[in-house]
Prior knowledge:
The structure holds 2 protein chains of 2 kinds. By secondary structure, chain A is of the alpha/beta class. In chain A, 31% of the residues lie in helices and 22% in strands. Chain A is built from 11 helices and 12 strands. Chain A is globular and about 65 Å long. Mean pLDDT of chain A is 88; it is low at 328-332. By secondary structure, chain B is an alpha/beta fold. Chain B has a domain at 247-270 and 285-328. Chain B is 32% helix and 21% strand. Chain B has helices at 50-57, 84-90, 102-105, 112-123, 128-141, 147-150, 160-172, 190-207, 218-224, 242-247, 252-259, 324-328; strands at residues 8-19, 22-34, 39-43, 66-74, 77-78, 95-98, 178-182, 210-214, 227-232, 235-241. Chain B is globular and about 65 Å long. Classes of the chains: A alpha/beta, B alpha/beta. The interface between A and B is large, with 42 and 45 residues. Chain A: It is found in: Cell inner membrane. Chain A: InterPro entries: AAA+_ATPase (IPR003593), ABC_transp_ATP-bind (IPR050319), ABC_transporter-like_ATP-bd (IPR003439), ABC_transporter-like_CS (IPR017871), Oligopep_ABC_C (IPR013563), P-loop_NTPase (IPR027417). Chain A: Keywords: ATP-binding, Nucleotide-binding, Transport.
Amino acid sequence: MSPRSALVSVQNLTRVFDVSKPWLNRVIERLPKRYLTAVSDVSFDIPARTTYALVGESGSGKSTIGKMVVGLLRPSEGHVTIDGVDLATETDPAVIDRIRTDIQMIFQDPFASLNPRWKVRDIITEPVAARGGDVTGLAEKLLTQVGLAPEDAGKYPHQFSGGQRQRLCVARALASEPKLIVCDEPTSALDVSVQAQVLNLMSDLKEEHGLTYLFISHDLTVVRHMADRIGVLYLGRLVEEATPDDLFTKPAHPYTAMLIDAAPKLDAFGREVTPPEGEIPDPIDPPKGCAFHPRCPLAIDRCKAERPKLEPFGAGRVACHRAGEIALESAA
Amino acid sequence: MTNPTPVLTLRHLTVDIPTRHGTLRPVDDVSWEVAAGEILGVVGESGAGKSMTGNAVIGLLDSPAHISGGEVLLEGQRIDDLPLREMRRIRGKRIGMVFQDPLTSLNPLLTVGDQLTETILRHLPVSESEARARAVRGLDEVGIPAAKDRMGAYPHEFSGGMRQRVVIALALCAEPTLLIADEPTTALDVSVQAQIIALLKRLCRERGMAAMLVTHDMGVIAETADRVAVMYAGRLAEIGPVAQIISHPRHPYTDGLMASTPAASAGHARLRQIPGNMPRLGNLPHGCAFHPRCPRAQDICRHDPRPVVGEVDAQAACYFPIDASEDAA
């Protein structure tokens, strides 16, 4: 059991997808079943009223974890406990309903996540209306909170710009007065100046409502700005976890260092970098040992044979046999 | 600059889209030059007209959008008024193009080798075997391992980053003098993005090729471009050397844009934000299009004529540009 203060506790979370071809093809072409391990043995806690960020490149499993936390996917193994309740095994409908009210999600594409045939009022009060709650004046109140006009309640989603739509998504997420909001790339589809507005709004609301965020993003600069703690994922495994300052000034895992180094920087005019080598391996057939070893400049024989465990390192945790041995030329 | 004639010259380029509710002007009086070996970064937010400008240069505007004023010159020769057939000969041959999504830029039914060979044969007077040899060299040059064996592979057999490399090879196989890259790394992961940026820079330097890099990512611009053009609402807001634009922007819009990136606000609780939204093209304010959101706006900004780069200030289209001295304060 996790410490009392953790609102969300993720333990040994694993999710395997069956990506086999249809059975007839398998019989005719004599193919074996194929499995993709999207998330593998991931554990972390999110204390109440903090922001935990998951970063990683495509295929690292960050969205899959987000979906398992809100209960859109069932874990293959492991548990997600929210406020002491595991939704996958809980049987009391009253408890399930209470916890579900506490979790909301904001998605990446504000164009795909709002029903175009519903009025804004119906969209943002739906989480309350679906449970038979009182929605008088709720839409107007929420719209004001996210910086839109109360009159907007009568409009349709297509009458709003991308940034305004994302505000609507935030308003809907707030409707049921949740404790936890899972944000999956909430600003990736937005322009920089609009992104700044939405991120500021999210920070303000966190203070006002005492919210806890699970913030999923591929953008290191956004994560550094928003998070209290960052988990770095590579091929479905947590490779490093640290506070933003530690992570960016002294990354302990070579993959983290590579990511930070590869991210374009504003003050690096004409910077000549040797770009990282290789690409993310095929998740169906990941490398043996440490999954990062084929691209790792520090890899030794041990890395090819033995997978490093996630172990405490400084104030964080890291999964690397050579943790902390990185030459820190570019980390600043 | 060794060659006095710039590779690309835009003079007061204007694009109009006639609609039922009046004419929209997504590109309005844009002028700039790109010299050989130089990378010009074009930044702006959605709707700023940056992609439209790129499409206007290569003559790929979707009807009813059309060039309604100004001219486009390629190595001193006017190309915006050429008939379609001659324009086709220039496109691909003298101007290479790279778009955002590598999968939609490649034909899924042809092997990568066939697509490259076809393009080379179309534009260069070489034999088929020579074209295939050049195709292999092209793939090799963009860093595709075992290029010879990969000639027979179809686009879906490549990863996203490798596909974008193929698209770059395709754009460069006829040895163009100008490359237009429209958000070439936006669909890619950070580590792959770094690889593609390094590749583009290397190729421009080695071949002395001019490039117009259209992107919304300030970080990519900072690392890649020699000069930067900032667009707002179809107009050129500011243009200058990359270090100057990023460290000492003169236009209040550029300043706001730079400050609202999370990287620039590191350590601050809140990001600086520009109030309001980008105006709609059908409803642009009089005078400077940025004045309703501008902290420095005064009466003169609200009326025509609007400020133009080079008239009031050499770098920015602004009546009250930010001074370097204020910057320090």
